[in-house]
C-alpha cells in the first residue's frame, strides 16, 4: 500500500474530548490509496460515499476526508444534511481554535468533504460506499438496492451495521463478493477499532482492501472470519449488558450504582448505562424491538429503554437518557 499525495503532507495532532491523540496525514488535494493484491490485482480507492448523515455517518465521512480521501455524505432528510453542515463547521473551527489543525489543513478537508442532496451524486464514480442509516432492515434493503443500481460492479459496498450481517443484503446487490460489514465504533472520529466482517461470498481482495483502507485512515482493523450476531466487541459487551440489566431489573442495585461499580471496580471508562447513553438509546431500542418481534419475548431492560425512547430521550445526542447532559457552553 502506498500514499500518492499531490501536494505536501504534514503530521498534525487531532481529536480531543476523549484524550486520544493520533497522527494523521493532511493534504491540500484528494489522494488515492493503491492496494496491491496477492494475484497482482489493484484497487484504487479515491472516492468514498457514506449513505446516512447521522452521528456515525457524518463522523465516518469526515474521518475519511481528513486522511485524505474525496468523500460524499448523503441523507434522505434535508434537515439532517443541514445538521451535518453545522456540525462540520463547528468541529473544524474547534480544531483550529485548539491548535489541532491549521486553517490550511481545514481548507483542504473542506474541499474533500462533500454534503450531497442526492444519492446519485454521492455514488457517482465511488470506489467504496458505506451504508450508515438507521438499524432497520427494511430501510437498509432499500438503500442497498438503490446503491447497487448507481455504482460500478467493482465498487465495494459495506454496511456499518453493528448487528445486521452483510449477507442479509446479498439479494439486493450484484457481485456479492464486494459486500461486507465495516463496523466503526462511536465516536468514529476518535475510536480506532473497525470490525471487518466477511460474509460467505466476500472475496479476499475486498477484505484486504478494507484492511488497508482502515489503516490508511488511522484505524485498527480486525477481521471477523465468519458472520455471527454481534461480531466480536458487541458479543462481549452484550454479556455485560445482560448481566447489568438483570441485576437492575431484579432490584439488586440501581443503574447508577452499577455504573459506579464497573467504573471503579473494573476500571471501565464508563459503566454500561452511561455507555448506552453515548451510543444512543434509539439504536438500542431498534435492536431490542427487532429481537422482541422475532422472538415474542421482551429483552432484559426493554421497558426502561422503550420508556426513554417514547419520550425522545436518546442519550447524549438529545441531552437526556439515563443521565442528563447539559448543553455545552
Describe what this molecule looks like in 3D.
The chain is an alpha/beta fold. It has two domains: 43-224, NAD(P)-binding Rossmann-like Domain (Rossmann fold); 233-318, N-(1-d-carboxylethyl)-l-norvaline Dehydrogenase, domain 2. 41% of the residues lie in helices and 18% in strands. It has eleven helices and 13 strands. It has helices at 55-66, 78-97, 103-112, 119-123, 137-150, 204-216, 233-249, 255-265, 272-279, 281-295, 302-310; strands at 2-4, 10-14, 22-26, 32-36, 42-45, 47-51, 70-74, 113-116, 128-131, 156-159, 179-184, 193-197, 220-224. The strands form three sheets. It has an eight-stranded mixed β-sheet, with helices on both faces. α10 (281-295) crosses α11. The longest helix is centred in the N-terminal third of the chain and has 20 residues, at 78-97. The radius of gyration is 20 Å and the shape is globular. Residues 1-41 have low confidence and may be disordered.
What's a quick, concise take on this entry?
The chain is of the alpha/beta class and 329 residues long. It has eleven helices and 13 strands. α10 packs across α11.
What's the helix and strand layout?
Layout: E1 2-4, E2 10-14, E3 22-26, E4 32-36, E5 42-45, E6 47-51, H1 55-66, E7 70-74, H2 78-97, H3 103-112, E8 113-116, H4 119-123, E9 128-131, H5 137-150, E10 156-159, E11 179-184, E12 193-197, H6 204-216, E13 220-224, H7 233-249, H8 255-265, H9 272-279, H10 281-295, H11 302-310
Parallel strand pairs: 6-7, 6-9, 7-8, 9-10, 10-11, 12-13
Antiparallel strand pairs: 1-4, 2-3, 4-5, 11-12
